[in-house]
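Input sequence (349 aa), recorded before submission:
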Amino acid sequence: MLVAGGAVGGALLVAGLFLALSNTGGVVLETPGEPVVQAVAMDQILPLTKSVPAETWPHEVSQRAAYGVAEVRVTKAGDERVGSGVMFRTDGYLLTSHDLVFGAEGIEVTLVNGETHSGALLGTDDISGLGVIHIDAPDTASAPLALFNPPAVGDPAVTVAGLARTADLKDTAISAISVSVPIADNQSLHGLIQLDKGPQAKASGAAVVGPSGGVIGIVVDVGTNNATYAVPVGYARKIADDIVHSGAAQHTWLGIRGDDTRTPSWLTNTRSAVKVRGVILDSPAHEGKVTKGDLILSINGQPTPSMTDLILELRRHPPGDVVELEVLHNDERHLRQVELITRVTDDTT
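Predicted structure, token format:
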């Protein structure tokens, strides 16, 4: 019987499908290059399918992922912060939280085997809330990533911070997905996984492990103790690859400022949409004849009832894609063809 994290008694059947990816290309820290990417199927990565008692489930489900979770100590302006990082490749690359490592003057990474390495910050991305660190440690254990097993509300999960002992593991459950959380004036993190318990010690940059035993998310610090939030691992891996290959995350850009709004009552099939509060000159939206005051109803037929939905739909499209926006302009529906480009400014979508 599969029950949510935190349950006492009974047994848990944990099963699923996940894949660990590795990169065996050259490592260039200062000038990002074009390393050869190779997917490696790791022999020891198999779904956990046995039934275990609920009280031992956190350890059972997370033991393989824990080998790829490191402790990260960061020095900033003379102060030290301690968080975590998740090894997503076997050649020393770790995903972590932007909040933990941004502005770091020194980084020290301690692996599960006790080895300590100086870390190099390859880049951070405040839009996703992530950062990437590299250590000079080839053939390190990486954590299995649940890239093809998306989480669902109610799934049990375990948060694993660096150098976690069995007593440190925190079992929890997924209470929401695709969550938007404000972190600063006019800035939010979108598409986050929300867990029903607050963060543990060293949580920033920690792994969230799902029922399959694979990492489903990277914990980000959003300044609250009421719940834990994580970036889904598929999106996190994309951001990490961008940073490793080009030195910065690549985000698709539309070129609007907007917020959620109700649509006119006569639109019986659409109750809410994104209201365009501003359009950047010469942006894709401007070139596609989107104007201030328009309501964006959908992208390629996918409804966009909120800014979060709009942003998550844009993430499905790389720069260069042409998308069709359904907009309400002066109480009339129109279809606008828009060619998306790489984001060039920080304060718009």
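Checked by second reader. Helices lie at 57-66, 98-101, 233-246, 284-287, 307-314.
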